[in-house]
Structure formats: C-alpha cells, structure tokens
Amino acid sequence: MNFVSLRIITSDVARLVAFYERATDVAATWSTEDFAELRTASATLAIGSTRTVPLFAPGSAHPADNHSVILEFLVDDVDSVYKNLSGFVEEFVNEPTTMPWGNRALLFRDPDGNLVNFFTPVTPAAIAKFTR
Fold first, then answer.
1. Cα–Cα distance, 46 to 9 (Å, whole number)
2. Long-range contacts (CB closer than 8 Å, 24 or more residues apart) made by 30-33
3. Other C-beta atoms within 10 Å of 89: how many?
4. Is 130 helix (H, G, I), strand (E, B) or coil?
5. I need a surface site. Which of 22, 41, 86, 94 has the fewest CB within 10 A?
6. Nearest in space to 113 (alpha carbons), one of 95, 96, 97, 90
C-alpha cells in the first residue's frame, strides 16, 4: 500500500488552490473547475468542490469543518518560509518553534480553517528520519 493523496473539500476551489499554490510554490493541475491537484515528490494535495461530494456519498464531507487533521509539508528552511508567508497567511497559530521531536515547525490555517504545518528537521535524529 502507498499513501498518495489527501483531498480537501471546499466551497471555493479557486481560492483554496491559489492559497496552496502561493504557500507551497507548487503549481496546480486542474482536471475540471471542481477539482485540482498540487503534486509533490511524495504526495498529492487534491482540492475538490462540494459539488464532487455526491459522487462519493451525499453529505459525506463538509467544507471548512476540519478539527482533527494537520496537513504537513517538509520545507528546507521553515524560518525563511515564515518570512515569505508573513503578510500572506491570515492566521498563524504559532511562529517557528522547535518541537521536542526535533522539527522546527510553523503552524497556520488555510482560508478554510484547516491547520497546516510547515516543518524543517533540525536535530540529528529528525534529519536522519527524512534523509534518503
């Protein structure tokens, strides 16, 4: 098994895609006006419209209603990313902070309120975990 994608359901696909394109510097690939993907080397962030939900199961997903998932992105220098995103991201939950497990992490919310963590491993153990 291989985990390949996470999908966010939103009522405004264009707005959320534009946010993630700017935040990640990854261009989206659009399939329809209701679905786009931002592909990275390790996984894909899919963004789908509320109009796609009935294709799976009506009422099974609700936009801007996430209270348990954090989207995480490995970045080269979280402090530089923080400076780049200041003035763009509306809600930072915390500034870059070194966590007990060895990652320097920046937590913020996307326009739908989803938590996003950009992190950089900074301890030898954390660096080893993400080095291939």
1. 9
2. none
3. 19
4. helix
5. 41
6. 90
List pLDDT tens digits, range 41-67: 999 999 999 999 999 999 999 999 999
In this predicted structure, the answer to whether residue 121 has a pLDDT above a threshold of 80 is yes
pTM above 0.85, yes or no: yes
In DSSP terms, 73 is beta-bridged to: 118
CA distance 125 to 101: 8
- Phi, psi for residue 48 in degrees, rounded to 5: -125, 150
Compute the radius of gyration of the chain from its Cα atoms: 15
**What is the set of domains in the chain, with CATH numbers?**
1-56 (3.30.720.120), 66-132 (3.10.180.10)
Q: How many CA atoms lie within 13 A of 104 on its CB side?
A: 16
Contact 76, 119 (CB under 8 A): no
